[in-house]
Amino acid sequence: MSEPLPMTVDQPKELLARLFKTSDSKKVIDRSAIELIAKTRIPPPPPGHSSSDAAKYLEELIRAVTAEIIASHSGYGYVRWLWYLRRIPTALFAGTYSTTTAYDMALAETLCSSFDKQDTAENPDRIRFKIDDSTVRHISRLVGAVRVLSQLHTAYRCIGKGATLDLTHAWPLWHASAPIRDAMRIYDSRHDAIQTMELRGLGIANASADAQSLERGLEAGMVKEMFLFIRSSEYRAPVNAPDQHGQLRDQTVAASYALSALSLERLLDPYNIAPAISTPAYVAELEPLIILLMLWPAFAAKMPWTLASALQTGYFFTRESEFRRLFEFWSPDLVAILQKSHPSIPWNADYASWRARLAALVPSQWPLRPSTAVREYGQALLIDVATASSAILTRARSDRTQSELANSRAFAFELQVQSIIDASSWKPSEDLSAVRGRTLRIDGKAVTDIDAIGFERDALLLVSCKSIIYDDDYDRGVFRVVRNVQDTVDNAVANWSKILATLRAHPLGDNYDFTKVKSMVGVVCTPYVAYTSASETLADVIDGLRACVAASELALWLNRANDAPE
After folding, report:
1. DSSP symbols for 285-318
2. DSSP assignment letter at 165
3. Is residue 134 packed enough to be buried (19+ CB in 10 Å), middle (13-18) or exposed (0-12)?
4. Within 13 Å, how many C-alpha atoms sit on residue 391's CB side?
5. Are 183 and 210 in a shared domain?
6. In a domain, 472, yes or no
7. Backbone region of residue 120 per phi and psi (left: phi > 0; alpha: psi in -120 to 50; beta: other values)
8. Which domain holds residue 296?
9. How far apart are CA 527 and CA 553, in angstroms?
């Protein structure tokens, strides 16, 4: 048996953990929240206000609180704040759901990205900042403030789902009926259970994700996929990186970020319609981020410390002169390949232009949209591959007003759902597969189209796909948008239930034969978990499978069915 690899410890992270454990940080966090609340009170709407008035009040309050946080916590620059935030105990932002922790941490980082102050590290040859009791108090004050802002975001989303705003207290609270509270709890739990990347802003299923070796990216020629760095629970990762003496050696690090592969085609041509329709508008924003992440394997090959650092903190530091040299060496070849495969996109290999395009990406705290992927620090650069990854996933947004894309988007999603089924034990026979996309008829009358189909043993799975888009307004929780999506899925479930009843009553039609099927299961499938309070939509149609499911939920259910004992 081989000897275990030596463990390399992030000493600043361990020191912060010890100080937070022994400090009065909870009191500081609570006091910071109370002080922020006292500073940012604004006139409330009159009694008997409408949900629209409540939303407008919260919008104004969110703007005021955001401005106050930025004004009060800019004593540290962004690089210093990020250095701390990527190392503090995640429990500081812990909530009922893991998504709360991830959201609040990203919100804190995005707020701090507006700070331009240049801090001085303790050691000019090594980027490390002071850590003591005052540091812990400073961080705790920011945590308290971020929690307040996050709770306001939550209140706004709850109003969008049918809750009412209570303004009789020092700070706005929301209340909801028992059915609405239960629906919110179910929605949050479902959302929390999905641990995959999602391109939900494009109205398609989650991005393909795997954590294969770095060599896979190099062998792929950096044209088929890019590596994203996704925040994960801590795990042990073997790396080859410099030790404290600068010598390369195999070692283990406590990683907080996982490598996942994202198909470039899925991102640039999500609906498989090029070149019939022009490149999606969001691609111009993503272009500099794509170049950065596709070049990262080359940087890692030449700068071995970058993998260990990126897995631990989501970023790495390097001298700008060295980074620029490598960029200018690799980017022309990469851009030439990309221009050949995707000529409609204005790829640009010029370093100065690339930096300018990155700098033009403006971060947003609400809806949450990180952007600061590269930041200067003296003669060095902070390359934040985790923020670049998040920026790609949050900025990939399809325009729901482009009606010419609707059919292509719907067809692409249907094929994705079918591929999910085909990868499971529910893969249908050739005869049943031929039914997919067919308009089923009874006595010459059209009944329905089958978007996706599966079969296992004697059960038939029929899926109606709804390619709804998760846009910025849905992310914020705008009432009109949330209600429109709910109406869409509720109506789809009711309609699909009627169609299933018709097919059960007529298993033999003009152009289909389901007579050998003992049971039919029908579900509506969406790209992401859609909020609804309708009991019919939330009900299980079969054990563990709701009447309306996200594509990721369907995949999980199919995999569990595969693993079930005989």
Report:
1. HHHHHHHHHHHHHHHHHHSTHHHHHHHHHS-EEE
2. E
3. exposed
4. 29
5. no
6. yes
7. beta
8. 200-395
9. 10
Is the same domain home to 413 and 383?
no
In this prediction, residues 33-42 reach a mean pLDDT of 93
Task: Check if the beta carbon of residue 109 is closer than 8 Å to that of residue 371.
Answer: no
The pLDDT tens digits of the residues spanning 461-512 come to 999 999 998 889 999 999 999 999 999 999 999 999 999 999 999 999 999 9
pLDDT at 216 > cutoff 50: no
Q: How many residues does the chain have?
A: 566
| H or E element, residue 356 | helix 351-359
Query: CB 494: neighbour CB atoms within 10 A?
Result: 14
Q: Which tokens is 471 given?
A: 């846009």
Q: Work out how many domains the chain is built from and give that number.
A: 3
For residue 236, list its beta bridge partners: 254
Which residues lie below 8 Å from residue 253, measured CB to CB, with a gap of 6+? 7, 8, 10, 236, 237, 239, 241, 308, 311, 312
Does 3 map to a domain?
Answer: no
Residue whose structure tokens are 């707020």: 111
Q: How do the residues of the chain divide into helix, strand and coil, expressed in percent and rounded to 5?
A: 50, 15, 35
Each residue of 158-193: b (16+ CB within 10 Å) or e? bbbbbbbbeeeeebbebebeeebbebbebbbebebe
The answer to the question of residue 1 being in a domain is no
Flag whether the pTM goes above 0.85: yes
What does the pLDDT look like over 144-195, one tens digit per residue? 999 999 999 999 999 999 999 998 888 899 999 999 999 999 999 998 888 6
Looking at residue 564, the DSSP 8-state letter turns out to be S
- Give Cβ neighbours of residue 275 (< 8 Å, ≥ 6 apart): 344
